[in-house]
Amino acid sequence: MKIGIDKIGFYTPHLYLDMNKLAVSRDIDPGKFTIGIGQEKMAVPPVTQDPVTLAANAAYEILDEADKEQIDFVIFGTESGIDSSKSAAVYVHELLGINPNARAIEVKQACYGATAAIQMAKGHIALNPESKVLVLGSDIARYGLNTSGEATQGAGAVALVICADPGIMALEDKSAYMTADVMDFWRPVYSDKAFVNGKLSNEQYIAFFADVWEQFKQKSGLDLKDFEAITFHLPYTKMGKKALKPVLEDAPEDVQERLKANYQISTGYNRNVGNIYTGSLYLSLLSLLEQKEDLKPGTRIGLFSYGSGAVGEFFTGILQSNYRDYLKTENHNKMFASRKEVTVPEYEAIFEETLPTNGSTVKLDTDADPAVICLAGISENMRQYVNKLK
Ligand code: CAA
User: Fold this and answer.
1) Distance of CA 37 from the midpoint of ligand 1 (Å)
2) Side-chain-facing half-sphere of 100: CA atoms under 13 Å
3) Which of 75, 37, 79 has the alpha carbon at shortest distance from 308?
4) Considering only the top CATH level, what class is 170-321?
5) Rg of the chain over CA atoms, in angstroms?
6) Which CATH number does 3-168+327-387 carry?
7) Per-residue model confidence as pLDDT tens digits over 234-278
8) Structural domain spans, the chain
């Protein structure tokens, strides 16, 4: 039985910051951000968007009534969750009207969360072939104003429907993974910003890719020539390039050229959104599928997932015959085209706007946010959400 990705939804907030302008205001050469890091624009989440609403908006785009009946498992991968007890999946389940006979949980391992969710979903479908699983990867990446990580912030979510006989991509069974206790990036529960050892995180990412790739080759007997493209978790778009480069060195020239060209295409959306942590790998996959129109059904795509701390995994999928019919390319083009630029002072003010933590009531202006699903306020420490169309 084939199991894999049937639909992919994506949502990013309606505001963005131009990285050239951020660089100038920080007294940095813009080339460092646009070439050295590889980011053009950074999504800026208004206070009316949080990881729950981002995920709900991404899923809202793809779910029809039949999906809502068939989904019996909602798995939410996030590392910027809003509650240490209640899962973000329960809120999304309610906001989208998914049938009550479903499980709803949150999983965490930095940017690896959504990949863990997909692997769990695969097992669930193998046992229950009639089911569908909704996997969400949603995050707001916050390092802080004037920090070295600032240029690698971002916000957004992907939503994936995993089921049997998938429309977009069948996931293959061979997979290589590893875990090592590394303090490269972490966020203690008392902090709303991540702590990071930037240099170590880059080194670990590269080392993990090299390791799981070697492991995968041994397990599968496949080599680079068997791949049309390899997509990466992209904390910033230069990162995957750095990891791919040493691995490509021994490949034939034509294979190197193909993988390099397709890597570049797979960075398109990420370059204009920034890091979305758990969803980032799947945003890169989406960039490739939606922007390279001549990708052939039957070809194999590699996926490298890296979650600091750290867990890494390399796995693969085969594009299905009518996969283009399942994409929402038009919606995503419109979403990018309708975004509004904010100035650096506006971004800084939005960054510092936070919700009260003393139980007081705040009502937020959801009319200023074009998203269908918004955070409407907070009262007695309970977030209030609204689906404007429900
Ligand atoms: N024009 C062109 N390029 C320039 C330049 C210019 N004017 N000035 C500098 N550069 C280049 C540098 O040569 C360097 O290139 P290489 O990496 O190819 O050598 C690049 O710009 C970055 O410069 P620095 O290394 O000096 O940058 P930095 O030390 O200020 O910070 C960073 C970079 C470590 C990525 C930092 O932004 C950071 O800590 N980000 C958060 C952590 C992160 O994203 N880690 C990635 C791996 S961990 C992971 O993947 C999980 C996750 O999601 C967090």
Assistant:
1) 5
2) 0
3) 79
4) alpha beta
5) 20
6) 3.40.47.10
7) 999 999 999 999 999 989 999 999 999 999 999 999 999 999 999
8) 3-168+327-387, 170-321
